[in-house]
Target: Nitrogen fixation protein FixK
Amino acid sequence: MLNQSLRAPTVAKAPVDPSRSPADQFFATTGHAGLIASEFTYKKEEEIYGEDEPSEYVYQVVSGAVRSYKLLSDGRRQIGAFYLPGDVFGLESGPTHRLTAEAIVDTTVRLLKRRSLEQAAATDVHVARSLWSMTAGELRHAEDHMLLLGRKNAMERVANFLLEMDRRLAVAGMMALPMCRRDIGDYLGLTLETVSRALSQLQSQGILGFSGARQIELRNRQQLRNLDA
Amino acid sequence: MLNQSLRAPTVAKAPVDPSRSPADQFFATTGHAGLIASEFTYKKEEEIYGEDEPSEYVYQVVSGAVRSYKLLSDGRRQIGAFYLPGDVFGLESGPTHRLTAEAIVDTTVRLLKRRSLEQAAATDVHVARSLWSMTAGELRHAEDHMLLLGRKNAMERVANFLLEMDRRLAVAGMMALPMCRRDIGDYLGLTLETVSRALSQLQSQGILGFSGARQIELRNRQQLRNLDA
DNA sequence: CGACGGATTGATCGTGCTCAAATCATGTGG
DNA sequence: CCACATGATTTGAGCACGATCAATCCGTCG
Model:
């Protein structure tokens, strides 16, 4: 799937929005090191790489959204992270990917050969530092998420999710969620029904409003923060 | 607490067992870079560093055991990792520690100034690579643990814990757990009672044997692996 | 030996899961 | 442009797993 997907990537042209923190600086930093980034588009539901596959590329979302997950043999799934425009994913220190990555909707990514990154890191201390910072950022997220998964109740998890998504993709006070209820549940360690019930309850309390199941407006962020333990 | 703890650390003398993978090579690698490691001992239950404190040192367990955790305001605790002899902990890419670390039992650590590590990494690409690998190793563990916390049932979690501890600290087929049932529960996202019940059930099935609550012998690792999803 | 903290075991409860049905949204073909 | 098909979401009813509350039991250390 990775092989198929990466036939003849075209050279990058569209710049990613040049705001935000370490993740966004990443491809910029590598640009200074003379690395060439390509672009590629994956269809909705398409696999970008699989768990345990050799790690050949590092990716940055240009548009769309990606889910990264692990599966148990009986199909139980834990989504470790969602990647949204500007986010970098697929960076490994070891030889293989440890989670599967899939496009949630049609998604365009910029990509960089892992090998060239490694080479750049060997001579450019800023690139090396950037690789470490990226991984440390993912670790920080995972540590916060372990607390959520191990110790928060359903409403706290959903409130936390809404605030995270609001921060990451709100436009004009509105967020357009790219993922379905099942994805949200598999991210939060809940079932899709429990997620739905929590959202309905928040709506009935006036804390949020819907315009379609995936178009959400937060009407009271402070109350949401109180709900998030 | 960190300040107090680190008054007058003595120069390192005892070498840590020179086996195991990336974590163990870490202090060795830094040794090549001419860095000086000190030793220090913490008493049982003593805090080594606190969440959000400035990260000044990197630690390696010489003897003893450490728990690293996050707390919610109402006291709910999620232990992210246990650190055992040979393990490195407290390494941050950012300025502060994101979890609290405490000695579970009397614990001796070797420590290295974070600043000197950063300086070494700026000139020695092996050190830089080592820092990245360490963080990536922690991330891998966190990713596996998110799957456990989000999607595994109580018995699967306990089986997984036993296999992890067996791998990391078994001596002559026996393991001496340094942590209490509450710590295990807070690591696995369970209560101490649930952990105790699972262990009792495994004993009644002959999968393990006790000689004191914390001295455990695994009698059937394969069956344990089957129980761990 | 006694006291104390840790561990086990029991009984009951409650949150979130499961199973099921109805409703809604979306896109496709006539 | 509408009708319908399909998948996503919501909502309901009942259940089960792990939590909670409580009472021993045990092991360790003074």
Observations:
- DSSP finds eight helices and twelve strands in chain B.
- The first helix of chain B runs from residue 2 to 5.
- The mean pLDDT of chain B is 90.
